[in-house]
Design brief:
Length: 128
């Protein structure tokens, strides 16, 4: 059973930056697309960004395009989310997730149902 552990969340002022990390256990990390999702209080979990198994293809939610960057280091079994120009509406718990199926599936659609393993989440709070 893969384990995902997020880190890097915290409190930041609007306009600031944070870098989230997600460390994965297991030897098959490089075979799976990875994603980041956010969940604000009282709201459903929402797609933020996804990256394919090689790191060559990425997709973003419209709300974060141009501000957030997803990347991965397969040698370190880690996926990152660089968050710049943060806004108060970015405040949420951020979760990383591992695709259900290796080298395939509709991971690029950014649907939570396509991701089978989740981390415990890390809180990001952006003050105005």
């Amino acid at each position: 059973q893969v384990q995902l552990v997020e880190s890097g969340g915290g409190l930041v002022q609007a306009g600031g930056s944070l870098r989230l990390s997600c460390a994965a256990s297991g030897r098959t990390f490089s075979s799976y697309a990875m994603g980041w999702f956010q969940q604000a209080p009282g709201k459903e979990r929402e797609f933020v960004a996804v990256i394919d198994w090689s790191g060559g293809t990425t997709y973003y939610a419209d709300s974060v395009k141009g501000r957030f960057t997803i990347s991965r280091d397969n040698a370190k079994n880690t996926v990152y989310l660089q968050m710049n120009s943060l806004k108060p509406q970015d405040t949420a718990v951020y979760y990383c997730a591992k695709q259900r199926f290796a080298y395939g599936g509709e991971w690029f659609l950014g649907r939570a149902v396509d991701f089978g393993s989740w981390g415990q989440g890390t809180q990001v709070t952006v003050s105005s």
